[in-house]
Write a structure and sequence with these properties.
With 123 residues, this protein is mostly helical. 60% of the residues lie in helices and 0% in strands. It has one domain.
């Protein structure tokens, strides 16, 4: 996931994270732990199960005392995944971008980047 530290450390749940994971239903604990640790390390959620390292899933399974799933069985989708991702975003003080955010970014880029790029001459 991120540079520095061992891969195992990146998939280690902090005590407060483990406590939070344990509040989820048995069926969702591993999937929630995967989403939580992936988001913590990368600042985003995995696009699909192929992005989640098998050794990470195995490390989380061991910490939670659950069997290591086969073929992405722990990857959450649907309404449950949406709800859990929303909870994780709140935990890390993130929110989904809005149209207003895009408008503000466009204005900032126009004022700070496009003007500078346009003012430089080519060699």
């Amino acid at each position: 996931m991120t540079d520095g530290g061992s891969t195992e450390d990146q998939w280690t749940l902090a005590p407060a994270e483990r406590e939070l994971v344990m509040t989820k239903s048995r069926a969702n604990r591993l999937g929630f732990a995967i989403l939580l640790t992936f988001f913590r390390e990368r600042g985003r959620f995995p696009r699909d199960e192929a992005e989640v390292e098998a050794q990470g899933t195995a490390a989380l399974s061991k910490q939670l005392g659950v069997p290591t799933p086969i073929d992405g069985e722990a990857f959450l989708s649907g309404r449950t995944a949406e709800r859990l991702r929303a909870e994780i975003r709140v935990r890390f003080s993130f929110r989904e971008a809005t149209v207003a955010d895009a408008d503000l970014l466009t204005i900032w880029l126009r004022d700070h980047v496009a003007g500078e790029a346009g003012g430089k001459s080519s060699p």
